[in-house]
Amino acid sequence: MNPIQPGQITALVLAGGRGSRMGGVDKGLQNFNGTPLALHTVMRLQMQAGGLIGDLMINANRNLSAYEAFGAPVWPDTLSDYAGPLAGFMTGLERCETPYLLTAPCDTPLFPLDLAQRLAQAFEDGSTEIAMAAAREADGQVRTQPVFCLMRVNLLESLVAFTQAGGRKIDRWTDQHRTVVVTFDQPGDDPRAFCNANTLAELHALEHS
Q: Does pLDDT of 190 surpass 60?
């Protein structure tokens, strides 16, 4: 039996970046098949199998009213100067009222609809603190997807200490904890599931793939 029960996960959409590789536009508000990327991510999280996700929130640092229109609470980084995804992690952990937090970036619109369910299975081992997604890429190599993490909410203190010491890389922090890598390479898994759109050209390519 899965130790994580329905409603025990809060999902966090990470939309707080600068969008520098998209020319500085707000990435989460760019359209994917007619729907803003961040709203598409919200809807995909709401469709997750197993009913494990109870609450949902968005991490954004500009255009807050546009994000609020998507129907979820919006929280900016508590760290200044666009400190990267870990700043979003920290914001989510600070605001999370459930035992677990699931993070998903706004620029990966095809992520699996059973993401939460499969990451949650890693917590059948009571020592697991973080489950991180991984995918097999076109070259055959399995690579972790650090922005797709399911973590225990009691890791906030650890993350605060890590960032206060200047840490900014997700995997440097997750390496300090009991992190289980969950590879999405089973038959039927979409090989494009973790393809992200860093540029407008990549976004349009994903729309037509």
A: yes
The pTM of this model reads 0.93
**C-alpha to C-alpha distances, 69 to 27, 37, 55, 88, 143, nearest whole angstrom:** 16, 13, 16, 20, 34
How far apart, in Å, are the Cα atoms of 47 and each of 40, 83, 115, 188?
Answer: 11, 30, 10, 18
The three-class DSSP label of residue 43 is: helix
The answer to whether 18 and 24 have CB atoms below 8 angstroms apart is yes
CA distance to 4, 17, 30, 148, per residue, from 20 (Å): 37, 8, 13, 21
Rounded to the nearest 5°, which phi and psi values hold at 76?
Answer: -75, 165
Q: Which two tokens stand for residue 130?
A: 């973080």
Q: 156, 126, 128, 206: which is closest to 12 by C-alpha?
A: 156
What is the pLDDT averaged over residues 175-190? 94
Tokens of 80: 């200044």
CA distances from 71 to 57, 131, 157 (A): 9, 27, 29
Q: HSE (CB half, 13 Å, CA atoms) of 109?
A: 24
